[in-house]
User: Fold these one by one.
Assistant:
Number 1:
Amino acid sequence: MANIPATAAGIADAVQSKEVSATEVVEHHLNVIAQRDGDINAFNLVTSEHARAAALRIDNAIASGAAVGPLAGVPIAIKDNMCTRGIPTTCSSHILEGWKPPYDATVITTLGAAGAVMVGKTNLDEFAMGSSTENSAFGPTRNPLDTSRVPGGSSGGSAAAVAAGLAPVSLGSDTGGSIRQPAALCGVVGVKPTYGRVSRYGLVAFASSLDQIGPFATTVDDAALITEVIAGHDPKDSTSIPQPVPSLRAAAREGVQGMRIGRVTDLPEGAEPEVAARLNEAFAALESVGARIVDVTLPSLSYALTAYYLIAPAEASSNLARYDGVRYGMRTSAADTNAMYGATRAAGFGDEVKRRIMLGTYALSAGYYDAYYGKALKVRRLISDDFDRAYAQADVVLMPTSPMVAFPFGDKVDDPMSMYLCDIYTIPTNLAGHPAMSVPFGTGAHGLPVGVQVLAPALGEVAMFRVGGALEAAGAAR
Amino acid sequence: MTFPISAEDVAKVARLARLDIADSDITHFTEQLAKVMDHFRDVDALDLSAVQPMTQPYPLVNVLRADEEQPCLDRDEVLAAAPAAEDGRFRVPPIIGLVE
């Protein structure tokens, strides 16, 4: 079989120049999945027939001289919380078992039009609630770099699929760090675009004011390529931003000469020493290629986690009210409808989802709304204002992505607060609605990968990718 | 002002959220939720009287489209994905007439 390039950009070029066929590329990846996914469990479903048919269409188009898209023949794995028409979409929850959506998410339509080939739906923490993928109803995903450890979460399946070479690129969703944290733990690039940059139409809602779709990739260039394809205004998503998408691949090659990189002097503590050391080395590396380090403060950041764990569950409790045994998935029979609701939801949801629904219902309930939810929304404003002040001085801000490297299974799964602390550095970005990306930068404890996080102001993807590209180059030169 | 969450609170929100939670599990959930709520003390100590709440990243404005007919989801496809359907509608158990 022909040599299959490792990157999405390489595959697209090779397929368009007929060095390899889309069919060869997809068969190669289906083989790797068959060999390796038994150990990793990245996929809830491998869509072999769908993928072979899509690849054949690409090959036929190329043979007939028809124009093909920028991702022609590129296999992509999709987090199983994005709707795919006629193909099961479970959110790794029993409550949606067997449900086949009657429509495609906008990202699925867009990727298909660009020539990408979906190879499967990836595992996640149930309804994207978790930081380890242990909350999946279909068993955990294992970290390909050390299968005794978690891949992070909630998009653990998408991160592991790319880290293990099961697909060159994948999509995840990020509500509080669910793309960036697993990217860091699996040693790949993960991007959360600005809230509204990528359509959420067809993304099963967890917390609607925080959710955002973004890519995983092995290179910053591939992450830029996928972001460029999926970003853009969508009339079907009323929070979609009507702004043109700049060239992010060009930005990633531009360098950081003259850029101001923010170092947070009052960053909440908790990062492992090796993680803190890699962050310091990242600042030094950027300085050595022409950037300037400026100190900034984000005094409200220490309240972000608390605010998030009221806001996100509040929105989730409302969004997940729709799973009631009437319209989707499973039903537990009972004598009347009210009893059927309670029995279906009790049988269909896992413990973490139940905890968050109850937390959210509590925070929104009569007598507690102002005391909890109302205050959390005000803290959200403080955090957003802090970022505005920081970005008056700095073009981007650098932070760790995750305080720790990949941890062993069972370490945190029964202690919600310790699991929630995994997201201490990623949550503030979601509250503000800003973009951020995680770029692998050296290793930490046990030789496991560390990610450095690049945060930018709303619609600041160009600055973010400039720094991401420079970090990748510096990391490769280490 | 924060309120320590009690087993009665948890049982009540479970009912409001239509989740049948066994009495034996209420204790476990109460302990876990109380730990999370405990962190709210830090936020509670802040003076937020002058701060405007932020419900989402961008100011909400009405987003409207032209009032023109557009294709919608296929009814049969939607009903095929439901647990029970009959005569083009979702089928559910009795809603009235039965009292707990």
Note: Chain B touches chain A through 55 residues (CB under 8 Å).
Number 2:
Amino acid sequence: MSAHHPAVPVGGKLFNTATFVCAVLVMAMVAILLVRFLFGLGAVTNLNDGYPWGIWVVVDVIIGSAFACGGFSVAMLVYIFNKGRYHPLVRPALLASLFGYTLAGVGVLFDLGRWWNFWHIFSPAHANPNSVMFEVAVCISAYIVVMWIEFSPVFLEKWGFKVQKQKLEKVLFIFIALGTLLPMMHQSSLGTLIVVMGPQISPLWQTPVVPLLYLLSAITIGYGVVLFESCVAASAYRREIEVPLLEPMAKVMLGTLALYLVVRVGDLVMRGALGHAFVPSLEAFCFWLEMACFVLPFLLVGSTAARRNPAKLFLAGVAIMVAGVLLRINGFLIGYDTGLGVDHGWNYFPSIAEMMVTIGMFAIEVLGYIIITRRYPVLPRDAAPAAH
Amino acid sequence: MNKGESMAKQHLISLEEDPRIDAAATRLEMTRREFLQFCAALAATLGLPQGADAAVAEAIATKKRPSVIWLHFQECTGCTESMLRAEHPTLEKLILDIISLDYHETLFAAAGHQVEAARHEAMKANKGKYILVIEGAIPTRDNGIYCKVGGKTAIELTKECAADAAAVIAIGSCASWGGMPSTDPNPTGASGVAQVLGKPVITIPGCPPNPYNFLSVVAQYLTFGTLPAVDNLGRPKFAYSRLIHENCERRPHFDAGRFAMDFGDEGHRKGYCLYKLGCKGPETYANCPTIQFGDVGAGTWPVACGHPCIGCTEQGIGFTKPIHAMAKMKNIEPSAFLPRIVEEKGVGATLGSAAVLAAVAGAAAGAGAMVARNLGLSHKAEEMERAKQNPQKDSAEA
């Protein structure tokens, strides 16, 4: 997979403060989920008839899978636009994606009221192929499988299955192709979920082009996540930052971001929905916050010199991730009014238990990333030795 | 019933001037109108066609009263009491008037051998024509020694009196299948009349049964000489062919999912469905919701009063199933996932949840700032080093 830039395990201790804190958070999550599966959603969440989707869907699944687009965005750059120099970024990005998507897939289960019926969506007798949820569920499930196959050379390398690895690499292009197709399908379908909610969503986020917006933002977030993850990994493992790779990639990110902003603002203007942004309301405030975060990367890494500064690359990555979070939370929760402006009083704020589960999900990702990068060949060989 | 149809030409109006009706009304200490209304009510309860009310009135006014022998076994006399204590002004008089009650242990002034002699006399005089009414369960264990009257066990008395009876009516749940005395562990082997006689009899279950259901059977026998059609448990179909649930006045609440959840809660006070308090209406056949109970006007039957039906007319339900236990739906089983009528609209941010979110956001922002600062510092150091090596000024910002 990465013949030119051999990847090696980082090494070092698995038990340290970071992994310990993550493990404690994960255990807290498991305890809460036990209560949830025994006594139902109402026992732990603040979900209600007006807000049947809380942060478990919006953050764990919708935002979680958008954060996991790093693998898809980089793979697209490397394999479709044939920019082989980004290859060292593929494995770490794919690892983050692998965790993000697998947990998003599992996270859906937490939010299913009758979770024991989860298999219905895969059963032709039960499934409704005309449903956008069906598209999302099947596509994400397929992508999770594809991604594990895409990532499996790492394990085969580690465990010494050389023959199998060679055989797999011959057909790997099929999975890589699928791995770029599938996320494009379901990231746009996640936007379609907004479309089907109709007038319950504020006009600032309800638009026929929302699938395109979600796809473009997911690709942009993918690059943002790679920036973030490379900087954090370099900082935590005291490694050299791949600035020569991240600098042009940040430029690509700005390109997709510009495209996103053109579509976003153009759509608002053409639909005449921009007026809603100038009403003194929580929705308008959150809209401007979201737009500010989307514009921020231009100010941070607009120049080549700025793009050489890892601190600015990191902040740009964070800004684009926050922007993606806000786009999704605004669409699904802040700009969502189940009462259609008539039935007032519906309210939702995540309970502590709900937040602990979401935090636990992210803790699993961090923990898994640390364990796998320390023990398996994911990150490119670094000139500087591992610090600890 | 066929006879009823042939009499359908007769009209109640035609009896307006009939001196026999006036005589009967005077005899019963009723006004003429009250008497006719009562007869019409009986005919309606039986589900008889128009015109039958006149036939019933005529029959009650003129026909020879049938002889009735009324036996009491294992019971509380509640069935008799409910007939006698009914609030309808002259009901107790009617009972005694439309039938010739020749033997009734509760109502007889006489006692001992005198009473037993009266029973034998009535049975002899009306052989094959008298109606035998049995109230109370019949103990069968140890040869039935747990209930004896005049030295004879309940089994012996039942068989003796039933031998020459024109009809046998088991009144109340005890006589119908054993009722309350047959509740587990049933120490006396309490059984119903049909079980002891080994043949079907007319049963009027209920605890107590509605007096009209009994009177209607007697009135039909008196008027047409026939007995009403019965179901496989011997219950007259006119009274026991519908579930209480089907005609219940609270049924719309059931269909809309409005349930009383506790005695005295808001739903209970508003008259919502009592299903979730254990109402057995959905599995109990009786006409309580249509003819009501206690004879004091509208809204006077257990469910209307706010108490769930206990299923007293239904073997295996009344006195068997706990009162609070949910009924097994005989028609449509409602989903356990039915939503409540008024759903909570959710809670906003609490101090704790807002604090946790703020703490997480703060920790993330702090960590981000630290990472950015460290990256910036190392970048600055690199730039300075590069500037030392390369005198040409690098305009890059720190």
Note: Residues 162-196 of chain A form the longest helix (35 residues).
